[in-house]
Amino acid sequence: MLVVVDTNVMLSAFARQSPIARLFRALANGEVRMAVTAAIVLEYEEIAGERGGSAFAAKIMHWLSLVSAAWGTVDVVQPSYQFRVISSDPDDNKFVDCAIVANADFVITNDTDYAALTNAGFKPQPIKPEDFIVRYLSP
């Protein structure tokens, strides 16, 4: 299964006692693959730095590099087209474009703006991280 992970989900998974840490263990052990673009990785780093400082941003970048290089569960894609599915927050389209181009199954997010993807006619669908964990990951 291939997913794209919204920034808020990515950052919250690193909090102590995070209920969605199970998702990131699944990425690390190969149960799930994740697609990213350069723009997504840069956003992860930027927002992590703003919210948790440079050490937190470095921790996330280190985790991504490990998952990508050591475990090979991160696919880097380069969308050449902007689908413009989300009009309420156009910045979220980088995640949608990545998901469509990568042929991902889901965009894991808590953001209601992604509801526009539900009836847009594309394969990737939005799903809350807790729902994804319950439905698709073994305990």
Model description:
It is built from five helices and five strands, in the order βααβαβαββα. With 139 residues, the chain is of the alpha/beta class. Strand 2, helix 3 (38-71) and strand 3 form a beta-alpha-beta unit. The longest helix has 34 residues, at 38-71. The radius of gyration is 14 Å and the shape is globular.
Largest sheet descriptor:
5 strands, parallel
Please bin the fraction of helical residues.
Answer: 40-55%
Which strands sit side by side, in order, in the main sheet? 3-2-1-4-5
Low-confidence stretches: none
Order of helices and strands: EHHEHEHEEH
User: Roughly how many Å is the radius of gyration?
Assistant: 14 Å
Range of strand content: 5-15%
- Please tell me what the overall shape is: globular
Number of helices: 5
Mean pLDDT: 94
Compute the separation of the termini in Å: 17 Å
Structural class estimated from helices and strands: alpha/beta
Count of distinct strands: 5
Summarize the structure.
With 139 residues, the chain is α/β, with parallel strands linked by helices. It has helices at 7-12, 21-28, 38-71, 93-102, 129-136, and strands spanning 2-5, 33-36, 74-76, 106-108, 125-127. A five-stranded parallel beta sheet has the order 3-2-1-4-5, with helices on both faces.
Tags for this model:
5 helices, globular, alpha/beta, 139 residues
Secondary structure topology:
Layout: E1 2-5, H1 7-12, H2 21-28, E2 33-36, H3 38-71, E3 74-76, H4 93-102, E4 106-108, E5 125-127, H5 129-136
Parallel strand pairs: 1-2, 1-4, 2-3, 4-5
